Queue: 3 jobs
Job 1
Amino acid sequence: MTSFGKLVEEQLPRLRRYALALLRDPDKADDLVQDTVLRALEKKHLYQPDTNLRAWLFTLLHNQHVNRVRQLVRQGPTVNIDDIQAPAPATQMRRLELNDLDRAVARLPHDQRTVLLLIGLEGMKYDEVADILGVPVGTVRSRLSRARADLRVMLSEEPGASQSLPSRSERAAREQRAGRANQAASIGL
């Protein structure tokens, strides 16, 4: 195996972890990682040795994922009836909380979920994520902030509450009310 191949191989667990968090299906995640590695090997002449290989591979993975999503949108939705299973009742509170978090993350808009997973799960820096997604660092920060705020709202909802995310105007109104409450508390009201 070449030295480039060994460097790529070292990144496989991180690529798979991110793909699994992104797709929520081990088989599809493995396919995405495999396609990403094939693409990396085909395009290794484009990699600049003194740059961040991890960020380059994550960019390839992200682009492969976006291409697949676009292809699926063109094809339309498909559901395999054999894959549908009734959820098993969880017995531990921690497991229920993790399931709630998993569902809440899945409900986030794609751009927010991507930033949250790259920073929170993969531990990447804001500037690395900005390079991978091709957006300014400020956009990464605002997406992460919105993702965290939306997660707080979703995780504080009562069971059976509305499944929609707050709009920007609802979020702004909530933040304004919180600001007034903080002001009142700071002056002793």
Job 2
Amino acid sequence: MRRHEAQRTVNQLHRRSGYKARPIVALYAEGMSTAGDLKISSRGQMSLPATARHRWGLDDGGDVGFLDLGDAVIIVPGGLDELRSRLLATVGDEVWSAARAGFGDPELADE
């Protein structure tokens, strides 16, 4: 996918989600922190870093979605529906067709 196509997709997701940060800033800002350590309280609570809260428009609170991958957790603004939309949007028609066809394995196609 070319950059302008990716930006168009991001803009469409942005309009549907109510996501407050400008998408070009949220995805491509220079100097954006990419890693850090978080502390988890004994009750399982953690704080989202201020830079992410500002970028995601969550200064007054809001919804985030998460996906537990086993060894990692992905967190996105907008809640679980937004997370599903973003994940589904990354898979193109060609990949969906291959999945429905069992990726070349006829036994998988019947599953």
Job 3
Amino acid sequence: MSNRKAQPKKGSKDKLPKKEKSLKPKMGLADSTKKIESADEVAVQINLKKERKILKAFNGLSPREWTLLSRNVWSDLSSPRHKRHLQHGAVFPVKLADRLIQMYTGEGDLVLDPFAGIGTTLVAAKRLKRNSVGFELNPEFANLAQEWFQEESNDLFSVEAERQELVVGDCRSVDSILKENSVQATITSPPYANFIQRSIADRAKTHKKSRIVLHNNSRVRQYSENQNDFGNLDYEEFLHESKLLFEKILKVTKPNGYAVWVVKDYRLPPKRPYISMHSDLAQVAQEAGWLWHDLIVWDQNEQRSLVLLGYPSRFYTNQNCSFLVVLRKDV
């Protein structure tokens, strides 16, 4: 007997078995329309989010860039000094000015430095397509700044700025030179009252072999003998004059604009073992109408050697950091 299955005859009513029907319900027109609308809504939401991010970033930073710059302790800013830096003695790195300008301004904004020195802030501003105005009382430093500006202009890859102006004179005239509500951010490091004279003696005695001197070629010198120089004022007078300057800078600053002052605390033992210059300046700034917005610590331990202080009777820590007092013009 043959094992071959019988084939249905042609015209027979027997049919091949049907495939099992899918258990998934068929998508109707309404469901299909909903799916399309849902996809469109997602796309719209994504675009809106992107637009909102761009609109909120007054400084042009992406959300990732914004977040990465939000650390409040910085230890990566040291850089070797140029010969012009040695002639000034207390210049903060261009990298510091770069970062602050990126954080608190956008392209085309106006940046102010009332204590311009050799022009670090103004150079950084131009490289980042910002406009800038600085004030420098000492003609020697102003000349060094102009030389630096010229070197930057001679660079084939230099960026043009609509305004890069250095006023050789007293910063107390800032409100007579700049328009009201015109400055987006002030980036500066003021003279530390007449503490500079103490620092000169301290460097010669205590820090002459520290890394900040040997590795970074840092130097300290008296800025000038001009009686109007903030660096020749005693501390209480320095704070008083700073308050008056804060009032003038507030006047020329845009609503929600910023001011960042880079300062270092001091010691005058035994009568004044600790002088909190950063908080004293923040206090007079608030009295002048500013809002104390933030505080950033610039850690310089890697650039300074530890020294023995107060041994064996009084224990002192090494003050190897600076403070960035961030102020904002409240609306």
